Amino acid sequence: MSILINGIGVSSGIAIGEAYVYSREQKEVHAYKIPETQQKKEIQRFQKSLSKAGEQLHQIKNKIAADTPADILAFIDTHLLMLEDPTFNEGTIANIKKFSCNAEWALLLQSNRLVKVFDDMEDPYLRTRKDDVLHVVRRIQDCLAEAPEHIPDGQQLKGCIIIADDLTPADTLMLQHQKIAGFVTEYGGPLSHTAILSKNIGIPAIVGAHHARQLIKTGETLIIDGRQGMVINSPDKRSLKHYRALHKEEIARKVLLHELRNTPTVTTDGKTITLHGNIDRPEDIRKLRKFDHTGVGLYRTEMLFIEKNEWPNEETQFKTYKRALFRLKGKSLTIRTADLGADKEIQDTIDQGPMAHNPAMGLRAIRRCMKEPELFIPQLRAILRVAALGPVRLMIPMLTNIEEMHQVLNLIEKTKQQLRIEKIRFDKNLKVGAMIEVPAAALSAYAFAKQLDFLSIGTNDLIQYTLALDRIDEEVSYLYNPLNPAVLQLIQMSINAGKKARIPVSLCGEMASNPQYTRLLLGMGLEYFSVQANALLEIKHIINHSKLSRLRPKIKKILEHQSANEIETQLDLLNHQESEKTASK
Ligand code: PEP
Ligand code: MG
Fold first, then answer.
1. Better-predicted residue by pLDDT, 149 or 495
2. What range defines the domain where residue 48 resides?
3. How far is the CA of 397 from the centre of ligand 1 (A)?
4. d(CA 368, CA 375)
5. Least confident stretch, 27-41, 85-99, 355-369
6. Does 242 participate in catalysis according to the annotation?
7. Is residue 30 assigned to a domain?
8. Rounded CA separation 382/313 (Å)
9. In this structure, are 464 and 571 located in the same domain?
10. How far away, in angstroms, is 460 Cα from ligand 1 center?
């Protein structure tokens, strides 16, 4: 009899294969006293297990494919860094001494303490970082117990679907190395590192499928649908036939999309559309190029600040931006100045002064930079300098009024003057643009457009500020809707303002990466999309099969509706009709 299990789909795609239930029950940890004279030995035993855990992670890094991108390996590096973290190891050693107890127990006490710190965090992403603590602790406990490593080597897992309680990023990489077809875990959420990793490496994955290990046995046939978050155990013939056909279509689509790599993005009536990618670090360009050799419409520089946990100096920034520019091999790079604050905070500033009640409306992004010009100027200098080496644009996040824009433009001019005095090479014609992320900026978009070189609509924030909902608060996520007519009007105003002032307007929020909205945005007059790397080809495919002269009047009509639901229904219908048309060609 077939069984249906639901979970959270974190990496889309269909996989059909044999189940492999990956069990690695960990022994319960018991506390026992050790004589004071034995403490030193116990500490050494703990330190040895730390080194062994480190060796295992290094071995995994060496084993997986040599061309694994650095951003994927970084998931293992996070665990390696944790092994060296004093709060982790010195805390455990202190417990051994304080309680004169065994290393296992001392480690458990320390990990409970750390998990509590993460649990108390407000940011849902940081909250899930406790998974990393648990994964590292588990590895060390296994080393203390001298348990063998669990993942079978060899061809045994090829084409299988792995069922596990939870997987560490290292497990996931090892399993991918063995060419598994997909995986299902009982725990873990959509923001866990394992979920992010599965999306990155492109294998269908489902997390939070409770009791999966009880309901599925090794060897049973499984279907997983990563988009729907659905597992079918022992499917009947009809389901198998249906999903095999879908799987085949999926592969054919991938091949079709792959053919679009490095080809122009042009509508059927001949309008060339700019299609760029979003990146967080120079290393991301590798992934971008896997899909398309294109430019970058949004480089979120704050990741450099967050990862370093400080404001990096001018030289570090210059070298990092230069690396990004050179990797693009002549394609353009839009560098956004640091958007720190709210959901992108650096640790050392959190402790300074009282926490803002409403950080998203507080000293964030350009407000923060202008408050601390001595920290901001090195970034401006680094961008001005790197712009002398290739096509670079500077983009200011979260501008809200014209005075603020003038202040930033003045500071840029002063910075240029200083570079001139110091006889340092820079781009005197650096193009400067602004993100339209708050309703005030959208409403004044023309005033901005008249004085800037470009605009870029940041819908992630524009939606948050227009609809008064915190974008990281799960409680109100049901209200987060790009199709809200108020949001669409603000987008339309921004596009129109750019056209009137004859400057380019892009859209770089998540909305641009969602194929559901591509025709809508095209019909609204958007000519520049900046999207996530893995959305590039899908969006290009839609653009290349769209006829603007046909879309425009249809979209205009859809936008006359007053409710998001009506707009969604009409847009779904249009999308359906258009894709049918494409398929029949
Ligand atoms: C946005 O707000 O849409 C945007 C692209 O910026 P971020 O998501 O980095 O805030
Ligand atoms: Mg934003």
1. 495
2. 36-144
3. 8
4. 10
5. 355-369
6. no
7. no
8. 9
9. yes
10. 5
Query: Do 119 and 139 share a domain, yes or no?
Result: yes
Residues 425 and 299 in one domain: yes
- Please confirm, yes or no, whether 193 is among the known catalytic residues: yes
| Helix (H/G/I), strand (E/B), else coil: 292 | coil
In a domain, 29, yes or no: no
Q: Counting ligands in written order, which one lies closest to the CA of residue 462?
A: 1
Q: pLDDT tier at 513 (50, 70, 90 boundaries)?
A: very high
Query: Which of 304-313, 491-500, 524-533 shows the lowest mean pLDDT across its residues?
Result: 304-313
pLDDT at position 350, please?
A: 43
Residue 16 belongs to domain with CATH number: 3.50.30.10
Task: Measure 341 CA to ligand 1 centroid, in angstroms.
Answer: 12
The whole-angstrom separation of Cα 513 and Cα 506 is 12
Q: 298-332, pLDDT tens digit by residue? A: 999 988 887 777 789 999 999 999 999 999 999 99
What ligand 1 atom has the least distance to the C-alpha of 464?
2
Report the distance separating Cα 183 and Cα 164, nearest Å. 8
Q: Report which ligand 1 atom has the smallest distance to the Cα of 397.
A: 6
* pLDDT interval class at 355 (50, 70, 90): low
Hey, whose CA ends up nearest to atom 6 of ligand 1? 458
Number of domains comprising the chain: 3
Atom of ligand 1 lying closest to residue 456 CA: 5
Pocket test for ligand 1, best of 435, 472, 490, 513 (most atoms within 8 A of CB): 435
Q: Which two tokens stand for residue 400?
A: 């809200």
Residues 401 and 464 in one domain: yes
Q: Tell me: do 296 and 190 sit in the same domain.
A: no
Residue 297: the pLDDT is 98
| Residue keyed to tokens 């340092």 | 424
- Residues 111, 157: one domain? no
- Residue 35 phi/psi, 5-degree rounding, is -65, 150
AA letter at 230: M
Catalytic residue among 135, 193, 247, 541: 193
